[in-house]
Amino acid sequence: MLKNIKQTKFNVWEWLYKYIIRFNKYHVENASEIEKENFNELKQLLDDIYDDSFDAIHYFGKNEWDLLDEFKREDEELLEKRQFIVSNIYSQNKLKGIIELAKKVENTFALGFTTGSLNILAVDEKELLFKYLDSKNKKLVELSSGYCKNQIEAGNIIIEDECNGLSNLARTNLLLQCKNDISTWNLVEKILSNKKKYWTSCFIRFLTTEEEVNYACNRKIRYKEYGEAINIIYSAIMDKIKFDMNYAYSALKGYLEVYQVQNVSQYSIQEIIKYLQNESFDENKLFEIEWIYINLFDDDCRPITIEKKVASDSNIFIELLCLAYKGAREKKKELTEKESLIATNAYSIINKCKIVPGTLNGQFDKKSFKKWTASVLKMAKLKDRTRVAKNVIGKILFYSPEGKNLWIEPYIASFINDKSNEDVREGFNTNAFNTIGVINCDGTGSVYDGYSKKYVARAEELENMQYNNFARSVRNLSESFKLDAEREREGY
User: What is the C-alpha to C-alpha distance for residues 295 and 175, in angstroms, rounded to an integer?
Assistant: First the structure.
């Protein structure tokens, strides 16, 4: 019970201490007199409940960022404070005192590392190096690991010499404190009988050579540490280090097996995919990766490989269309979980396409566009999906390149204008409205008014070119924006 009371007392002191540090740093200059008076009372309370044992527990706390706040983020000052505490404890009780402290503090690794900076007895050094690296007591393992880390960095340990007589687990924990490079990994191969724990435990980020990146990715993927492989590859891309892109493919593909337990940011995955796209990676593999991660794409990271396939191959367009939409006369059916996921992915892909058929070479090719649309509409009719096919085509054609004397390529405008293509016009308008995104309403309706005027002008251009069906549809779009502006003004 006394132990619990002391722990509660420390928790209160710790909270007050952090509050006072931050108040002094961020608020004291602008504080009112009452706030300063209350603050001084808290400082007095802090002194009143202080216990000599608190410093050791505090400075070996888990959150080093809070501690660095205290020292204005100077690592040297924090290390000096820790060394002072550990030196006093060791001078009084030798290694026994350090081990007792390890039971109380959160950051036992830091305690071990700090102990490594002291000149301790040879018998204590031997105990820290050989006795605890494979202990069942996690805190003792961390204490020993921290000590070894310090000694390795100081050049006081020759790994192969120290490993004689150590268990495989102890050797692994020793090697985990070494620098992540080829020389360490050669030792892993040489002296570990079982290498899995090393490769599933080592934290690797900042490598310097292509050889290191490829080696680390190879081993991480071998032991299904796909998330770690992704993080290594992302760091390599940021540092402009080349690597075997097949490792990126394997890591991204394998990550789906472990994403619930291995944490990787969406941004990292997007950057890797963009890198593969820009480096002209194998199209079939890239298509597969884009399909798997289709829901991660946005305006900054698009499924370019799939878009190009859809824009060049009418069969792929129809295949995706049939997965995403049922036929007009087809009865609704219950889908399995796998079928539902495939349908969702197909829908997402086909409605994200921005590459217009006939524009793959940078310039509009009328023949390619005509061939693609004719093929799609023919197959869509056979599949009972003419209407949805035209609607999706309309959405894609919203991204049409400009013509010489018109805001849209004239041949595409002519296609949209065709009397039979009302569903194409509807899809075009849908995308025109959806792509404006979120609007911050200020009550004036000015944003919607701007879009309304923009499409009035475009409708007039179409009328001048005799694309009257298309022009009427664009005028309707302009009117819908005008109504939105009026609703904003009335409801603000």
Answer: 40
- What amino acid occupies position 108? T
For 150-198, write each residue's pLDDT tens digit: 999 999 888 887 788 889 999 999 999 999 999 999 999 999 999 999 9
CA angle 394/476/474 to nearest 5° reads 50
**Class of residue 204 by CB neighbours under 10 A (exposed 0-12, middle 13-18, buried 19+):** buried
- The pLDDT assigned to 356 comes to 96
How many whole angstroms separate alpha carbon 492 and alpha carbon 91? 73
Q: Report the candidate in 56, 64, 57, 50 with the shortest Cα–Cα distance to residue 16.
A: 50
> What are the angstrom distances between the C-alpha of 150 and each of 88, 154, 159, 199?
19, 6, 13, 21
Q: Provide the 8-state DSSP code for 439.
A: -
Tokens matching residue 29 = 């200059």
State how far the Cα of 227 lies from the Cα of 220, in Å rounded to an integer. 9
Check if the beta carbon of residue 271 is closer than 8 Å to that of residue 237: yes
User: pLDDT value at position 1?
Assistant: 47
Which of 451, 468, 366, 462 has the alpha carbon at shortest distance from 407?
Answer: 462
Distance CA 25, CA 28 (A): 7
Give this prediction's pTM: 0.82
- Each residue's pLDDT tens digit, 113-150: 999 999 999 999 989 888 999 999 999 999 999 999 99
- Give the closest residue to 443 by CA, choosing from 485, 403, 396: 485
Residue 486's H or E segment, with its range, is helix 468-491
Q: Which residues contact 250 (CB under 8 A, 6 or more apart)?
A: 221, 226, 229
Structure token pair of residue 470:
């298309």
Between CA 268 and CA 83 the distance in angstroms is: 38
What pLDDT, on the 0 to 100 scale, is given for residue 2? Answer: 43
The CA distance from 330 to 238, in Å, is: 49
Rounded to a whole number, what is the distance in angstroms from the first to the last CA of the chain?
Answer: 61
